[in-house]
Specification:
By secondary structure, the protein is α/β, with parallel strands linked by helices. It is built from 16 helices and ten strands. It binds flavin mononucleotide. This is L-lactate dehydrogenase (Cytochrome).
Length: 381
């Protein structure tokens, strides 16, 4: 199917699947273990029903949303995705530029395949930085100092990776450090010549912000120790709050009490997230975790949700259940995989046009006005 005929994010996903070697596609498309949590994320969004109201003038629709004093043209942004250039070479910069052009936030990952400095420049004022706390305090401090120097003012620290997720597809695909060109991988590349040629042009992707530290790494264990730590605690968050002068958000919150503690420690916001179902397969979908969390911290901090957003209406569902803003990860990745710059643009357009249409159908002309009164049923409350 051509890009122009793609009607949904899932159409973009199917097109990307045909253009990308399996091992690289699975890297983004996969989730933890049985992938139950990943599936439930989107299903649970679909289960939230909103009741339309009619005879309301919806000839002008306003999708703007203001977060941390900045007004964005849509109530969603691009979630941080590590190593995205392995999925589609050049994807990081394509998406940072798209977010600037559409005036939505772009979150640069600590584990991005392009340096945080280059991404700050491309996102040009619309960039936020996602921080992984390393087992080496000097590595964490190095990233914070670089983020500050690059001009980021919003830091999103990820809490939900005390251990790396177990992704069965990656194990089956024998992903390893250093990357191994097995006969199967070579065959997969040969069957996707466009991807292979682009990869040759862009070079092998790496976790660019740690490139010097990881030179010569020979195992995943080494990479993980540099990137993440099982020892990240509330005391570290307290220190981080004192260290970072800008806005601070915690990403990966699923429990209302954890959200309350974030507020008490002076954080500016949280992202209710389960990492797109890539961490724990036994956890709840985020849209089910959201209402209790939003109730607990309503008015005290900004509440953002991600994981499973595939339709414009999902943003309305999230807003009705207490979120201020949303992020999408794979939806944008599928777009860029389906068609580079034009595909990324298409992903944005699909989500945004669906959102505009859904607002009109709901009988609401301003995104900000969506609220609990639009819920057909008060689920999980
Ligand atoms: C391939 C991939 C890599 C990711 N890398 C990171 C990362 O480096 N840091 C982070 O905080 N979250 C990371 N995430 C999680 C996303 O930020 C986001 O929470 C998730 O993609 C949302 O779910 P969705 O893909 O269903 O929209 C990653 C997700 C994917 C799919």
């Amino acid at each position: 199917m051509g890009l122009d005929r793609a009607a949904s994010i899932n159409d973009l996903r199917l097109r990307a699947k045909r253009r990308i070697p399996r091992f690289a596609f699975d890297l983004v498309d996969g989730g933890a273990e049985n992938e139950r949590n990943m599936r439930r994320n989107s299903e649970a969004f679909e289960e939230v029903e909103l009741t339309p109201r009619y005879m309301v003038d919806v000839s002008k629709i306003d999708t703007t949303a203001t977060v941390f004093g900045q007004t964005y043209d849509a109530p969603f942004g691009m979630a941080p995705i590590g190593m995205l250039n392995a999925f589609w070479p050049g994807a990081d910069l394509t998406l940072a530029r798209l977010c600037k052009a559409q005036n939505i936030p772009y979150v640069a990952s600590s584990a991005s395949s392009t340096t945080l400095e280059a991404l700050a420049e491309a996102a040009d004022g619309n960039g936020w930085f996602q921080l992984y706390v390393s087992s080496d305090a000097a590595v964490t401090e190095g990233l914070i100092a670089r983020a500050e120097a690059a001009g980021y003012t919003t830091l999103m620290v990820t809490a939900d990776v005390p251990a790396a997720g177990k992704r069965d597809r990656d194990i089956r695909n024998q992903l390893a450090v250093p990357f191994r060109f097995t006969p199967d991988v070579i065959l997969q590349c040969a069957m996707n010549p466009r991807w292979a040629l682009r990869s040759l042009k862009y070079g092998a992707p790496n976790v660019a912000n740690y490139a010097n530290l990881l030179q010569g790494a020979t195992s995943y264990a080494e990479v993980q120790k540099t990137l993440i730590t099982p020892g990240f605690t509330w005391d570290d968050l307290k220190r981080l709050r004192a260290r970072w002068k800008g806005r601070l958000l915690v990403k990966g919150i699923l429990h209302a009490q954890d959200a309350v503690t974030c507020a008490e420690l002076g954080c500016d916001g949280i992202v209710v997230s389960n990492h797109g179902g890539r961490q724990v397969d036994f956890g709840p979908p985020t849209i089910e975790a959201l209402p209790a969390i939003a109730d607990a911290v309503a008015g005290r901090m900004t509440v953002i949700v991600d994981s499973g957003i595939r339709r414009g209406a999902d943003m309305l569902r999230a807003k009705a259940l207490g979120a201020d803003f949303a992020f999408a990860g794979r939806a944008f990745a599928y777009g860029v995989g389906a068609g580079g710059d034009a595909g990324a643009q298409k992903a944005f357009e699909i989500l945004h046009l669906e959102l505009v249409r859904a607002l009109g159908q709901l009988g609401v002309s301003t995104f900000d006005d969506v609220g609990p009164t639009h819920l057909s049923k008060y689920r999980n409350k």
